[in-house]
């Protein structure tokens, strides 16, 4: 991806329009990055022309940072890291890397990841925008009867992108959490009873016992890669996710569900029938699914602060 | 008489050494508080054994490598965490890792790391770059290692890792003894200069994994960092970073809940 190039040597940055150019992959290209000018703007430029010495020029220590640098609910500035159907940038894995990996696999234990023995497919909604909905694949490890930890991917193929982590707790544990903490969690009853949540590859009857125990649970899901927004790389602050609920704005788009059901041969009719007998939780804590009662979602901002310790990082 | 004495002395020493070793192996770098909850019921365990054999786990099977390194909170360098990365390649230039607090079966999933090569790091927006950190120092310093893998093989991969940038987010603050993943996600940073890593944590890891950071430093002298040098915006541009929670308005729920069809 090319753009207009304008090289500026440190001092006259204020007269230079803010431009950024990328041209990835080759050695003889110009690579320039110029920060937008603010009152105490960073005065650095990085460039590398053919034949010239590589490196960054400018005043590294004078760095101005915006009040909030990355927010989970703000679209990132345009760069090649976004768009093009969110295809993953970069070269295919080389044989060399694969060999190293096989070597490592033989010598290392990988015990923690071997503990995941449950695969669930469901849908999640962005906590700051419930109209954005994604199909998620949870790979779940049960720690004990009341707690599960899940690695969440955007598909179940080897090319799946790791998009976040969800933790699931029983209602007993949930009730012990302070209310400020409970606001970050969502309930699971609705998505399980309506068959949005399914265990691919498992006959519906076998799924029952698992669902019985999960119906009464609450989840906390942080999404670190907003692939549905077209992010080709994980950008921004982590986003809090919510679950589908029996309310208009938290409906999952039927097209998404139909497509998922077709893929896994799930019959929603069957799922709902067998689960309709399932006991509903007598009560869902009103602090969970916070948006329902309060009309407020949550976003995460990353803000610059003084580092607690001695000295700077660089 | 003398032989018997030295024999019993020998036995005593062996017993002492064995119990010492046992004590040591129970040492966790971070205080291990049990996750609250009842033990898993038999029925549930059986079902999950079944799902474990029947279902597909391709994304997890893509994870082929275990790396151990240290992270500290981006707003507080004094809080340091031993981080066990379980990584897979999405392609040659992008890796994704699950981070646990130990390499054992009962490890807690505490975070995620993404690793990209320099050319991709440079395509990130300027307000994104500070969230990423460079790996050069911790690789060359010997602090990042692959447990169980001989140095020569390890160095083949570390040659690449040395030139990459990473983004780490932790969800569970185990270092402050949280029994559950409370609070909001934390951006983490990695070691970038000498004197940052707490001596005790370092020694503990060296002992438990039988590695010596200093020895590794010697052997990794020929590794080089990113071709363009460490970008000035990486590593939080030399400042600290903190995450904050903010409420946002969303459209009110309609008063008539619709049954989902």
UniProtKB/TrEMBL annotation, chain A:
Family according to the record: Belongs to the OBAP family.
Annotated protein name in UniProt: Oil body-associated protein 2B
TrEMBL record, chain B:
Pfam family, one: DUF1264
Similarity comment text for this entry: Belongs to the OBAP family.
Alphabetized PANTHER family for the sequence: OIL BODY-ASSOCIATED PROTEIN 1B (PTHR31360:SF0), PTHR31360
Protein name: Oil body-associated protein 1a
Species in which this protein is naturally found: Rhynchospora pubera
């Amino acid at each position: 991806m090319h753009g207009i190039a304008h090289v500026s040597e440190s001092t006259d940055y204020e007269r230079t329009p803010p431009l950024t150019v990328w041209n990835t992959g080759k050695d003889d290209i110009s690579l320039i990055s110029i920060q937008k000018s603010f009152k105490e703007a960073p005065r650095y430029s990085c460039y590398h022309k053919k034949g010239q010495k590589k490196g960054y020029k400018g005043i590294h220590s004078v760095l101005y940072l915006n009040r909030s640098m990355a927010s989970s609910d703000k679209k990132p500035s345009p760069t090649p890291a976004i768009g093009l159907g969110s295809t993953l940038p970069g070269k295919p894995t080389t044989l060399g890397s694969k060999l190293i990996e096989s070597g490592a696999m033989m010598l290392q234990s990988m015990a923690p990841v071997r503990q995941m023995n449950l695969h669930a497919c469901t849908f999640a909604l962005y906590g700051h925008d419930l109209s954005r909905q994604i199909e998620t694949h949870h790979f779940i490890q049960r720690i004990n009867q009341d707690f599960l930890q899940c690695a969440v991917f955007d598909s179940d193929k080897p090319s799946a992108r790791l998009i976040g982590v969800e933790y699931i707790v029983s209602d007993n544990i949930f009730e012990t959490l302070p209310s400020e903490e409970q606001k970050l969690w969502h309930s699971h009853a609705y998505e399980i009873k309506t068959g949005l949540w399914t265990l691919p590859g498992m006959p519906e009857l076998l799924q029952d016992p698992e669902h019985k125990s999960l119906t009464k649970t609450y989840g906390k899901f942080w999404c670190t890669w907003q692939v549905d927004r077209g992010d080709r790389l994980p950008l921004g602050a982590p986003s809090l996710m919510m679950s589908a609920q029996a309310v208009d704005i938290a409906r999952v788009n039927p097209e998404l569900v139909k497509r998922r059901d077709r893929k896994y041969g799930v019959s929603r009719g069957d799922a709902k029938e067998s689960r309709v007998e399932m006991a509903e939780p007598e009560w869902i804590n009103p602090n969970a699914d916070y948006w329902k009662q309060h009309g407020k979602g949550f976003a995460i901002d990353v803000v610059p602060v003084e580092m607690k310790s001695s000295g700077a990082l660089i | 008489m003398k032989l018997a004495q030295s024999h019993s002395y020998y036995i005593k020493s062996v017993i002492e050494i064995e119990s010492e070793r046992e004590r040591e192996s129970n040492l966790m770098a971070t205080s291990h508080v049990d996750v609250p909850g009842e033990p898993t019921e038999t029925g549930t365990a059986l079902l999950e054994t079944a799902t474990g054999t029947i279902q597909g786990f391709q994304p997890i099977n893509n994870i082929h490598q275990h790396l151990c390194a240290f992270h500290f909170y981006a707003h507080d360098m004094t809080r340091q965490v031993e981080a066990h990365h379980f990584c897979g390649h999405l392609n040659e230039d992008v890796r994704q890792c699950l981070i646990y607090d130990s390499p054992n079966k009962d490890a807690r999933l505490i975070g995620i790391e993404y690793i990209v090569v320099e050319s991709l790091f440079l395509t990130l927006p300027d307000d994104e770059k500070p969230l990423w950190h460079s790996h050069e120092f911790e690789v060359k310093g010997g602090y990042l290692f692959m447990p169980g893998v001989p140095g020569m093989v390890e160095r083949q991969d570390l040659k690449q890792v040395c030139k990459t940038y990473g983004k780490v987010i932790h969800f569970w603050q185990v270092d402050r003894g949280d029994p559950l993943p409370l609070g909001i996600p934390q951006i983490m940073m990695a070691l970038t200069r000498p004197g940052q890593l707490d001596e005790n944590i370092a020694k503990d890891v060296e002992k438990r994994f039988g590695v010596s950071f200093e020895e590794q430093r010697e052997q990794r002298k020929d590794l080089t960092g990113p071709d363009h040098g460490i970008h000035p915006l990486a590593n939080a541009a030399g400042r600290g970073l903190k995450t904050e929670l903010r409420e946002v308005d969303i459209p009110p729920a309609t008063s008539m809940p619709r049954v989902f069809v």
